[in-house]
Amino acid sequence: MSNTVIYTLMESLISKKYYATKEEATDKLGVYFAFDMIDAEQMTELALLAEGVYAPPAVEPEIPTEPEIYRQVQRCRRRSHNTINGPVRCVLVCFRRISAL
């Protein structure tokens, strides 16, 4: 097979996520590259394609709304006034809860 056929085939397989993982796809590219079936430029392009296709989806952190923060602080205050340290503990617990959101 010519370089163009291998390149086109691998491009198609990677784009359609034929391989289970990125490592599987890059291992196959490495074999083709080792046997001079694709050149360095094609190898680089296909490796970058695999990196983009098999990258995990970006997860955006959820930003709490004002009412949610207010509820967390109120819940914390009610519990903390029953303790010895009262308001100091309340601030620490509220900070931890809000940071965890």
Task: Report on this structure.
The chain is mostly helical. Helix content is 69%, strand content 0%. The protein has helices at residues 3-15, 22-34, 40-53, 66-80, 86-100. The protein is rod-shaped and about 70 Å long. The mean pLDDT is 78.
| Number of E-state strands | 0
Fraction of residues in helix: 55-70%
Segments where pLDDT lies below 50 for 5+ residues?
none
Radius of gyration: 27 Å
Ends: how far apart? Answer: 55 Å
The mean pLDDT is: 78
Largest sheet: none
The dominant shape is rod-shaped
Briefly note the structural class of the backbone. Answer: mainly alpha
H-E order: HHHHH
| DSSP strand content | under 5%
**Tally of alpha and pi helices:** 5
List the helices and strands and how they pair.
Blueprint: H1 3-15, H2 22-34, H3 40-53, H4 66-80, H5 86-100
Helix pairs in contact: 1-3, 2-3, 4-5
